[in-house]
């Protein structure tokens, strides 16, 4: 199901697919998704730039390679989805808002749970990045596969 959905983007060189949103940057300590570097996003109450969020999102092979090569110099924010969005923000990238990848409530997320324990899987073509919700992994080096499902370490 997911592979077929992403296959239509394979020919696009720089595509970023997911449930796109722009939420308020949370500056208050102790809150879920608190961003310690909130001040970098402007005045209190500002919003993040549009980025893919939720249980799953994908990037093209070219973008996955770019991230893999430049990972040592890419800044990481408190939330991995914001980090990924920041890394792609200044690049010529096609953002695709695929609402079917949104996951607001547990019932919406059931099919995503069926796909394994990965919070996010970024793969179009043969390059792959994966995330467990806090850290990005190079899929080929750090992820195991069982019955077609990606499993993080």
TrEMBL record:
Pathway: Protein modification; protein glycosylation
Cofactor field: Mn(2+)
Subcellular location(s) of the protein: Golgi apparatus membrane
Main location group: Golgi
One Gene Ontology CC term in the entry: Golgi membrane
Keyword Metal-binding annotated: no
Enzyme class: transferase
A GO MF label: galactosyltransferase activity
EC nos: 2.4.1.-
Keywords, alphabetical: Glycosyltransferase, Golgi apparatus, Manganese, Membrane, Signal-anchor, Transferase, Transmembrane, Transmembrane helix
Bilayer topology annotation: Single-pass type II membrane protein
Protein family: Belongs to the glycosyltransferase 31 family.
Protein name as annotated: Hexosyltransferase
Biological source species: Panicum miliaceum (Proso millet)
High-level lineage: Eukaryota, Viridiplantae, Streptophyta, Embryophyta, Tracheophyta
